[in-house]
Design brief:
By secondary structure, this protein is of the alpha+beta class. The protein has helices at 6-19, 26-33, 37-49, 81-89, 101-130, 146-158, 229-232, 254-261, 289-296, 308-327; strands at 54-58, 64-68, 160-166, 175-187, 190-197, 202-207, 211-220, 246-252, 270-273, 279-285, 302-306. 18% of the residues are buried.
């Protein structure tokens, strides 16, 4: 693990301060993390600026020590049982980050919850947690990619150019790409890297499952000041990002109208109940690639009204499927 990068180094520094009740000198912190004292002082000033409960004290023989305020160097936090329950149940949603410094810290927190609540309360928590199940059909497994994820998070945090070895769905061999990593997106059980690709000269999305190697360089890049992941994906029906501006209308039969009404499928959606019980859904999207698959999942209960190009695309898909079923040998 590289300790001289801000994300990992500062995370370890907080962990050190939390573990050392009486505090540490700047020199001790610098030596333990393998960086110079100026770097540690900058980190400490950052912590003070954002309001972390740290303070400088004077110990024996006038030694200046830094420590976290509060009992045993811990933040002054207390939680009601329902809050503990909520945190404990939510632990499974961190699984995509398994093995990273974030995941490890969270596991330590959950271990402390288990140690503090007592056997009876823990049994209650486990029972309640068992009443909620998070499906994982098709979900990515990143347990073996902990170092790779750490490197990507570090590259995003430090704004460093990164070379990845990536094998797309249609490629027969992996290809090297030079990227400027902007952020990670969790979608339908999988992680996607949003990055500017030097090779394609555009912003692209890379499924983390298909990245086999990551090399973070020392060369910084400048991310646009106005870039925001949520805004970037605002017109996407998932993670596929296009450059168009397409008005999509879909009519759903009465059999599935209520199901469609119950969920928020996209920020732009407008749902209109029809007199015959059907439902007209309207969207404004940058691409029709992902919504096409969603529409096909409803079978005969969903019909595209517009655009005509999407209607024709789905017709071709259905014709090909019918041909496959007619000619396939079982």
């Amino acid at each position: 693990m590289v300790r001289d990068t801000p994300l990992v180094r500062q995370w370890l520094l907080i962990k050190m301060l939390a573990a050392r009740r009486y505090g540490l000198t700047v020199r001790e912190m610098a030596e333990e993390l393998g960086v110079n004292e100026r770097t540690i002082r900058r980190d400490l000033q950052t912590f003070l600026a954002v309001g972390f409960p740290i303070e400088e004290t004077v110990g024996e023989r006038g030694r200046k020590l830094w420590r976290l305020r509060g009992p045993a160097g811990r933040a002054d936090l207390s939680f009601a049982l329902d809050e503990v329950l909520a945190l404990y149940i939510a632990r499974r949603f961190l699984d995509p980050l398994a093995g990273t410094v974030i995941w490890e810290a969270a596991q330590n927190a959950f271990q402390k919850i288990r140690a503090c609540v007592g056997k009876s309360a823990l049994a209650y928590l486990e029972k309640m947690a068992g009443n909620l199940h998070h499906t994982s059909i098709g979900a990515g497994d990143y347990a073996a990619k902990s170092q790779l994820l750490d490197d990507l998070i570090r590259a995003i945090e430090d704004r460093k150019a990164t070379v990845v070895l990536y094998q797309s769905q249609r490629a027969t061999e992996p290809v090297e790409y030079e990227l400027y990593p902007y952020g990670l997106v969790f979608h339908r059980g999988s992680l996607y890297l949003v990055a500017f690709s030097r090779d394609h000269d555009e912003l692209r999305h890379f499924k983390v499952d298909r990245i086999s190697e990551v090399e973070v360089s020392n060369f910084p890049f400048r991310m646009p000041d106005d870039f925001n992941l949520a805004k970037h994906l605002a017109n996407s029906f998932g993670v596929f990002h296009g450059k168009g501006d397409v008005a999509v209308k879909v009519r759903f039969s009465p059999d599935v109208a209520r199901y469609v009404e119950e969920s928020k499928w996209h920020a732009s959606q407008q749902l209109s109940k029809q007199k015959d019980g059907s439902l007209l859904a309207e969207f404004r999207l940058s691409s029709t690639e992902e919504i096409k698959r969603w529409i096909l999942s409803f079978g005969q209960n969903a019909v595209v009204v517009e655009p005509e190009a999407l209607r024709a695309d789905i017709q071709r898909e259905l014709t090909a499927m019918r041909r496959q079923y007619s000619s396939a040998r079982i």
